[in-house]
Amino acid sequence: MVRITVGIGAMTGAAAVVLATLRAHALPARLDPTSLAMVDSALTMLGWHALALLAVAALAERLPRRPLAWAIALFIAGLVLFCGSVLTRALLGLSLGPLAPIGGGALIGGWLVLAYTAFVAPR
User: Whole-prediction pTM value?
Assistant: First the structure.
């Protein structure tokens, strides 16, 4: 679990850097301000949750595994759904329906499960 989480966290961080580079150099000439704001939102979520995944991996030996695995799964699902949907809308103009709010809910759920893991879950 730890190695996979670190790997996914590292790839998420790399994706954030690539997106930040595109945002700074290629996208301003191609996108309207609303779409750029959407890219910024996805970039923020990618960056913060890359760090969150790495932190969770670092804590894996100290916290109960099962709820921690749920937090990791929710973070990953949330990133795919939220960032994927927002970027699809911003870059391609295609709406994927309610996937962004579902992904946002998954990200929030990941944080709440992580809090549960720290405060309540039996060791």
Answer: 0.93
